[in-house]
Amino acid sequence: MSTGRGHERGGAEAGDDRWAAGREVLCAVDPRMAALVEAEPRLDPDDLLDSLPSDLWGALVLQVIGQQLSLAAAAAILGRLEALHGGRLPTPAELLDTDAQALRQIGLSRAKAVYLHDLAARLEDGRLDPERLRTLDDDDARTELTQVKGVGRFTADGVLMLALRRPDVWPAADLALRRAVEQVWELDPPASVAQVDALGDRFRPWRTLAATYLYALRRGG
At which of 126, 144, 162 does a domain end? Predict the structure, then answer.
């Protein structure tokens, strides 16, 4: 499984901890989040995200594949997609040349095969421009990404975290995050996206860091 580690970490030099100020904010605004920070005071979102595809194409492919699936299931399908192309992620042009039936045979739904073809076509013809995307603020980048078929908030937020490394992303539509919020704040399940969004507001402008602590909790538990 490719990792695609050619990302930028917000301009931090090696050895810098760009999340240190964020941990202080999280501890100050919420005692339950403070307990998570105190239990793992050096947690670094970049370290977690480095294990996943973090170029724009790879991040989008993983996020589309992962819709309604666990990370393990998505990784298995991604691995089979790579196996079709010599053990690497196909380029957008190569994905366009991979017919829908071949994509179905590796475990993709008919809809996801359509989504991936639309994504690849947009990258090939320039309707989706990775360099332009990096210049946009979070809301505008999210709007741009959701022009792709099948890309909603869940997928767009994943790309903002993985590929663009934005520090203030709160993927409230992600079921794993919602389950963690229910656990930590003792909410009656199922917590709604609106509930999770409202709770996340207190962690601005460090919501990516807060989300990472919650993902780590689910991974460890």
Answer: 162
